[in-house]
Amino acid sequence: MPGVVEQPTPEIEPAQGHDAADATPSFTRGGFAGFILRHRRAYQVVIWSVVIVAVIGGTISWLSGGLDVENAGYLGVFVVNVVGSAAVIVPLPGLIAVTAAAAPSFGLNFALLATAGALGSTIGELTGYLAGYGSQGVVQKSRYYSRISGWIARRGGFALFVLAATPNPIFDIGGIAAGSMGYPISRFFLWVGLGKLVKFLVFAFAGRQGIQWLLDLV
């Protein structure tokens, strides 16, 4: 209409933080991950309390002989590996326990030992995975984190399987990376469990047969 000046339509800018959220690889943004993000502070307190208790309790029990596999057998191997893997970044000798317990003098089945150790270790690794939700800790600032998280984002379960199946001190970084990007917990448990089982079978067999070059790795 004459005499009416049309006002320009303002551009609607994207919500703050949207692009930043999309820049981080994520397998899921709802469900469990969403629950954790809504209760971030309480969740972190619980997780790190569990880790601290696992480190202190596991170390004391191991040094005092309370987790001696010679006396505790399969259950001892399971518990040692739960505690050892739950102690994020501070490893306790779970693989050593399986390898030593497989010696013929103990009379234990090496395959059952490997299964008990792998199950316990996989359960323990869930602390690292869960710690990855909603946290920006020291590990996530390390030079290895971006490489490992990028590999998991591209390869998913295969990357987790390889990390779990090989003796290395950086698996915890992979667990934290998987948690931070929302990798499904059921698939995490599956692929890590399979990788751990392969590794533990190899080292339990080495302990059974006295294969020295493999025993030297642990």
Jot down its keywords.
218 residues
The global form is globular
Major pleated sheet: none
Distance between the termini: 85 Å
Alpha-carbon Rg, integer: 22 Å
Instruction: Supply the helix-strand structural class.
Output: mainly alpha
Task: Give, in order, the helices and strands.
Answer: HHHHHHHHHHH
Query: Segments where pLDDT lies below 50 for 5+ residues?
Result: 1-24
Average pLDDT metric:
75
How many beta-strand segments? 0
Can you describe this structure in just a few lines?
This protein has about 220 residues and is an all-alpha fold. Helix content is about 65%, strand content about 0%.
Description of the molecule:
Helix 5 runs antiparallel to helix 6 and helix 7 crosses helix 9. The protein has one domain. It is built from 11 helices and no strands. It is mainly alpha-helical and 218 residues long. The longest helix has 25 residues.
Fold topology:
Blueprint: H1 18-23, H2 31-38, H3 40-64, H4 69-86, H5 94-101, H6 110-131, H7 145-155, H8 157-165, H9 171-180, H10 185-209, H11 212-215
